[in-house]
Amino acid sequence: MRYGTSVALRAGVPVISAILSHFSHDLAIDLGTANTCVFARGKGIVLNEPSIVALNKINGRIEAVGSDAKDMLGRTPGNITAIRPMKDGVIADFEAAERMLTHFIRKAHKRSGWLRPRVVIGVPSEITQVERRAVRDSAMRAKVSEVHLIEESMAAAIGAGMPITEASGNMVVDIGGGTTDIAVISLAGVVYGKSVRVAGNELDDAIIQHARKAHNLLIGERTAEQIKIEIGSAYPLDLPTTLEVKGRHLSEGRPKTVMMTDGEIRVAMAEPIKAIVQAVHDALERIPPELSADIYDRGIILTGGGALLKNFDRRLREETGLPVQTAEDPLTSVVLGAGQMLSDFNLLRRVSLD
């Protein structure tokens, strides 16, 4: 049944309210530390941009949001600062997050509109009540009518096509920008859930620190991310690769180029990768034995941008001895799963954190 007019009428809501909700273009939002992805009911994914805001410190005006703001990172004049409203999967700058959400919602609708959409937002598994309220309040101030929060791991499992309503164990590891969410799901409920604040951003930071210590080279976030994508890996590659990296020499103060190898970057990222693998081990030790048998048969599903790190699935397979698969589209699993909730109100009520 569609989450729209018929549900509203069955609940006794006036006809006019039901019609308005049908045309409100309800949205699902993956409000991530690194990227924000928006799904519109009936349209699919309509927006996927970096969670960055460029703010003018003199007049308080938002100069750019999303991709435009990311292009300004490290290149802004003194009166403009590029900030990330999200840190470790939760809101760190309330005002900037509100303005970013407002911008993305309007952009998703391609108009300002007077109808207020209902939204489903994915949040980390171990988010506190205070952090949960901050997300809800930011969304409400962004002019939405209703806010439903669901755990990112649950949304990722749904988006990856896992049979979460069956009486069997499903394990998902969602590696985002700020957090890694691990969950074992059965009968549409989270039997075990853990969120560790080690993910893609920590991998980038590790690369920045390595460049500074090993090469006396100062690089920015964008360069570190490029290195991670192009030659980063969690397990030795079949064919070793190198990359030419440009930055500023710390002692000489001039631009410099160095060659980096996949091996040194793998060593640089070893600690955060080890922390993620250990969190998976902890989850496997804490789940009921019946579900352990299910996971042994079904394996682990990887989602999130971190799942795209070369050979991470192979590393996890070696460490756990379990089958490990990467979701078909790991970057959008959370928002696709949240988007399904817009058309399945009964399932939304079962998995919502409200």
Task: Describe this structure as you would to a colleague.
The radius of gyration is 21 Å and the shape is flat. Helix content is 40%, strand content 26%. The strands form five sheets. Strands 3-2-1-9-10 form a five-stranded mixed β-sheet, sandwiched between helices. A five-stranded mixed β-sheet has the order 13-12-11-17-18, with helices on both faces. The model is unreliable at 1-23 (pLDDT under 50). The chain is an alpha+beta fold and 354 residues long. The protein folds into two domains: 5-50 and 88-154 and 334-351, Nucleotidyltransferase, domain 5, CATH 3.30.420; 164-327, Nucleotidyltransferase, domain 5 (2-Layer Sandwich). Helix 6 (152-159) crosses helix 13 and helix 7 (200-215) packs across helix 8. It is built from 14 helices and 18 strands. The two termini are 21 Å apart.
The percent range for strand residues is 25-35%
Distance between the termini: 21 Å
- Parts with pLDDT < 50 across at least 5 consecutive residues: 1-23
- Structurally, the number of domains stands at 2
- Alpha-beta classification: alpha+beta
Question: Share of helix among residues?
Answer: 25-40%
Q: How is the biggest beta sheet arranged?
A: 5 strands, mixed
* Helical run tally: 14
CATH class of the largest domain: Alpha Beta
CATH topology of the largest domain: Nucleotidyltransferase, domain 5
Provide mean pLDDT, rounded: 87
Strand order of the largest sheet: 3-2-1-9-10
What Rg is obtained from the alpha carbons, in whole angstroms? 21 Å
Q: How many beta strands in the DSSP annotation?
A: 18
CATH architecture label of the largest domain: 2-Layer Sandwich
User: For this structure, what is the CATH homologous superfamily of the largest domain?
Assistant: ATPase, nucleotide binding domain
Shape: flat
